[in-house]
Recover the amino acids of this structure.
């Protein structure tokens, strides 16, 4: 265990102990500290309050604060673990951890299930999937006849909704993802492997004397 | 399976194409 100093980052409103966060996530202490550099820059981009609001989140992701999108909103809601309308550093690290290449497969399955379960009922319902499909078509400018959308939904639910009750439960989702592993591709961010190289300035603000992994 | 029937992409593969589900933007300057 490293030795701690009282540094400016400890006074930062959204800051949490990197050693504790590292123990709870797929990140090392150094990686958590590197993420703090990213977090500081995002959380001060519009309002310098040490928390990430939705506008700052979208600005960081899309370089455009006005882009309203169903998926962006859903990702923000999932990162906002404590449901405070803002993301603190702990939320940020724990949520991003799911996207780490070394994060447990089950965590990725759980997160993706929540992502598609828009209303949080514990089921992915046909209407939710249709809503997301339409959002995707709007975003991409793709045009598909409603009949084609329904055929795609029929096929999807025929494969995924094994008990044919019109909704996909967690266990059906787990099986469906096992048969279609490419569905989890969006759940891995290769950038997270090199986070300390992307934000090398963390070294100057590090609170640990030695690298703790 | 009918070999003549076209292979349809499933709904989640399509949804996964959304650029808004790609968090790489956090790391691109």
């Amino acid at each position: 265990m490293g030795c701690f100093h009282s540094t400016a980052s400890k006074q930062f409103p959204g800051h949490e102990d990197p050693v504790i966060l590292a123990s709870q996530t797929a990140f090392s202490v150094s990686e958590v500290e590197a993420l703090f550099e990213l977090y500081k820059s995002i959380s001060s981009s519009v309002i310098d309050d040490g928390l990430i609001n939705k506008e700052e989140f979208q600005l960081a992701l899309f370089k455009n604060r006005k882009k309203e999108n169903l998926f962006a909103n859903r990702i923000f809601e999932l990162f906002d673990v404590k449901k405070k309308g803002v993301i603190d550093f702990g939320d940020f690290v724990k949520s991003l951890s799911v996207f780490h290449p070394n994060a447990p497969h089950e965590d990725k399955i759980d997160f993706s299930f929540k992502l598609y379960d828009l209303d949080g009922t514990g089921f992915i319902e046909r209407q939710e999937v249709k809503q997301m499909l339409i959002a995707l078509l709007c975003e991409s400018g793709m045009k598909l006849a409603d009949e084609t959308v329904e055929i795609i939904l029929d096929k999807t639910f025929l494969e995924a909704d094994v008990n044919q009750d019109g909704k996909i439960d967690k266990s059906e989702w787990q099986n469906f993802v096992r048969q279609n592993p490419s569905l989890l591709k969006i759940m891995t961010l290769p950038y997270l492997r090199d986070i300390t190289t992307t934000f090398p300035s963390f070294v100057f603000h590090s609170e640990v004397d030695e690298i703790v992994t | 399976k009918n070999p003549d029937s076209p292979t349809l992409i499933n709904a989640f593969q399509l949804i996964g194409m959304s650029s808004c589900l790609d968090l790489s933007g956090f790391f691109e300057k």
User: Anything to note?
Assistant: Confidence is low (pLDDT under 50) at residues 1-6 of chain A. Chain A has two domains: 15-99, 104-187. The longest helix of chain A spans residues 29-43.
